[in-house]
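User: For a benchmark we're assembling, each entry needs the component sequences followed by a predicted structure for the full assembly. Here are entry 17's components. Please fill in the structure.
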Amino acid sequence: MTIADMVSILHARVLRGENGLNRSVHKICCSDLMSDVLAFVNDKTVLVTGLCNQHVVRTAEMLDLKCLVFVRGKIPGDDILDAADELGMTVLATRETAFTTCGLLYTAGLRGEEIDWPENGGADSNA
Amino acid sequence: MHEEYPVEKSDYTRAGEASASIKRILKQLGISGSVLRRIGVACYEVELNLVIHSDGGVLSLDVDSDAVTLTSADRGPGIPDIQMAMREGYSTASEEARSLGFGAGMGLPNMKRNADDFFIESEPGKGTTIRMSFRLG
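Assistant: Structure for entry 17:
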């Protein structure tokens, strides 16, 4: 699937980075918690979020992510969009909720990150 | 090569600027791929920790032929229980930090996971030093 396919599935608006629409999409991460995104996401992942601040772009920059999808009809400010544009990211906005966005993308065949969760315990076992 | 970046307490607007600069410098030096990504993530986490938890401090970058080292040294307040602070999901972040998307309690464990070597030392009332190194090549 390409970012252009996602645009049509989500009836999304392309806010920045039209020349990246042919990029392939590998995985989806949906979160408003950038701390978790930093901990669990690999590159070539599309970040779906309802959080609208510059830390979404910073987080994506550190992870080398190339596509952001803002949900629930939110449109980030121009400062945020321009920062993403300068970093070569494609930025989409959809009126769908995070739940529906993920449902539509899952139905179209996309999947999320694999989280390592050992048999003998969860995150606490690393303490 | 040695660079220093002062990071101020609660300066959420500029948080991440030092990490973005460091990542760009390393990219210009020809560092790329997964090691650059690991450095970027760990650097951003440690910079955010300075903003969210410390009374301010300095983030330093050292580069030599075989490794990149990031050092964060702050002016306090220190971590009373490092073992607790290293637990995934444990966080003492403020509401302000949480409203910006942080405070999931993944910072220190995520730095440790991304660095090849991770060192933390803290004394309540004095401050915390974190040193992370990343092997090149």
